[in-house]
Amino acid sequence: MVFILMGLEKLNNMEKPENIVTDSELENVWGNANFGPYWNEHKRDFLNNTMLKVATQYESGSTAKYIVIKLGLVKEDWTFAQKGRDYLLAVFFKGQP
Fold first, then answer.
1. What single string gives the DSSP state of each residue in the chain?
2. Integer Cα distance of 71 and 61 in angstroms
3. What is the pLDDT, as a whole number, of residue 18?
4. Within 10 A of 82 (CB to CB), how many other CB atoms are there?
């Protein structure tokens, strides 16, 4: 169903999440945030989980909110910016034809 709505061509041309938010951008915005040893080593997974919270309208901590807002993925009112929608779709469909 999603394939029909988006069109196969758009899926085939979808950017990778790492191209939408680069590792250096994530590292720069992350700064001195400390979410513990696991999340500090898996920043992209943390970002993906935070984006899932936005999609499901769950709240997140203020530091996580700051990170996704500064990356331009989410607006101050906890709704997606276009970049955030693109990022979440890229995460969800990565590795699919």
1. -HHHHH-HHHHHTPPPHHHHS-HHHHHHHHTT----HHHHH-HHHHHHHHHHHHHTT----HHHHHHHHHTTSB-TTS-B-HHHHHHHHHHHHTT--
2. 16
3. 93
4. 9
Residue 47: which of 96, 95, 84, 19 has the closest Cα? 84
Answer yes or no: are the C-beta atoms of 69 and 80 closer than 8 Å: no
The mean pLDDT value of the chain amounts to: 87
Tokens 């969800």 — which residue? 92
Q: What is the mean pLDDT of residues 41-46?
A: 95
Q: What is the pTM of this model?
A: 0.82
Q: Which two tokens stand for residue 89?
A: 């779709």
pLDDT in tens, 70-84: 999 999 999 999 999
Distances from the Cα of 9 to the Cα of 1, 12, 13, 61, angstroms: 14, 5, 6, 37
